[in-house]
Design goal:
8-stranded mixed β-sheet; alpha/beta
Length: 424
């Protein structure tokens, strides 16, 4: 896909870039379509000799009211299971591609699944102690989106806000994270394109109350909440209007993981004014403050021991990537946020230690450039976390290592007037 922009005189970071410039092509050819992903997962299960169990946890949804029926289903949402929901084992849940244009996490997840399913002494020792569940693509609609006959992954799910179909007054405003016209940043972030399929930012549709469902609420109260800008915003949990968020939360409730990892993409940073290494990944163990449910009054907060484990998980991940003065070690901490409507925020408030992995670049800004290196920034930390959970050494990691990770800074601005990156 051809793109154009204003060329720079010199690279902004090492490796060079980050933004694709004049007449460069953004290629996605190495990434898997939904069909290719399904075939790959089925093949891995067949060759795993029983280690891996592949299940369909639910479906994305194209029904007019946005809710799953047996007749109208979208694409399957797969969960790969290594081990059962056994309270006697440590449990880690990993999700990727909650935004359809954030693909490298899925590719890295497949490599991890392949390694775990192949067995071997170290893998067997891990799986004796740790159950690992992976949902390798939780936004299949956005992942396979088409625009003008071309594969064009998008951040959003595909779904229309029709409040009358779920018992709300017809003029009830949509949740703030609804994308009404079906628009997305253009290639190379050069403005926007309108692909014409409405949908939601799934990663704002979660709620600390994992059982929240609009259809079970007082509809007048919900409508009042949605119609007010003081409440219909990111300070509050989402509304579970997407089949995808409902499915992921149901898997979380079944598994009750000790650790939850969500893999994202973001914009671009350098380490500092003096160090122009391009930051390949940012981590976060905290994305939500104490929360009071506006409908029930129930209070949620992150348990101190859960927070400590989250910091240890992120600290170990940081340490795993330190390889001298290399690009891998140029790690930052994700900026301070309070987002209870994200999967990470909602699950942290339900006693899961969390790790946000934010890889640099997205489909429209980086394509598959540096994909091999960026996959390593996901695979290497996660495998170390598996081992640390299995042998208990994760509890020996100093949480201060996480606290000392440099804060997000030195964002590399786009050299043109293109739209800013929205990130996590």
């Amino acid at each position: 896909m051809a793109v154009s922009s204003t060329a720079l005189a010199a690279p902004q970071s090492k490796p060079n870039g980050p933004y694709v410039e004049n007449e460069q092509n953004i290629s996605l050819s190495s990434y898997m379509s939904n069909e290719e992903l399904a075939k790959k997962l089925q093949k891995l299960e067949a060759s795993s000799k029983g280690k891996m169990k592949l299940e369909i946890a639910g479906y994305s949804n194209l029904a007019p009211d946005g809710y799953q029926t047996e007749v109208e289903k979208g694409d399957p949402l797969y969960v790969v299971k290594f081990g059962e929901a056994d309270s006697n084992k440590k449990r880690i849940l990993i999700t990727t591609q909650i935004h359809g244009n954030e693909q490298i996490g899925t590719e890295a997840a497949i490599d991890i699944i392949q390694k775990l399913s192949s067995g071997g002494k170290e893998v067997n020792e891990i799986l004796d102690k740790v159950s690992i569940w992976i949902m390798p693509r939780i936004n299949p609609e956005g992942a396979d989106n088409q625009y003008e006959g071309t594969w064009y992954p998008t951040r959003y799910t595909h779904q229309t806000w029709l409040p009358g179909n779920i018992g709300l007054p017809g003029d009830t405003k949509a949740p703030w994270y609804y994308n009404a016209d079906g628009s997305e940043r253009a290639q190379n972030n050069n403005g926007r394109v309108v692909y014409g399929i409405p949908g939601y930012d799934q990663n704002r549709d979660y709620n600390p109350n994992l059982d929240f469902r609009i259809e079970n609420q007082d509809t007048s109260q919900v409508a009042e909440f949605l119609n007010s800008r003081t409440t219909n915003n990111s300070n509050y949990g989402g509304f579970f209007v997407t089949a995808e968020a409902r499915t992921v939360s149901s898997v979380f409730k079944e598994f009750r993981p000790d650790v939850y990892v969500d893999v994202h993409h973001r914009g671009f940073n350098t380490v500092s004014d003096e160090d122009n290494r391009s930051v390949p990944v940012q981590f976060a163990a905290v994305v939500a403050d104490p929360y009071t449910d506006p409908f029930t009054g129930k209070q949620y907060e992150v348990d101190a021991d859960v927070l400590k484990l989250g910091k240890q998980v992120n600290a170990l991940s940081n340490l795993a990537l330190q390889r001298g003065f290399s690009h891998y070690g140029a790690i930052q901490k994700y900026r301070d946020v309070n987002l209870p409507g994200t999967a990470l925020g909602a699950f942290a408030l339900n006693d899961a230690a969390i790790m946000l992995i934010e890889i640099k670049g997205q489909s429209q800004t980086l394509g598959q450039k540096q994909a091999g290196m960026l996959k390593e920034t996901v695979k290497v930390p996660l495998y170390e976390v598996f081992k640390g959970l299995a042998d208990g050494s994760i509890h020996n990691v100093d949480p201060q290592v996480y606290d000392d990770i440099p804060e997000s800074s030195n964002s590399i601005s786009d050299p043109t007037t293109r739209d800013a990156d929205t990130g996590f």
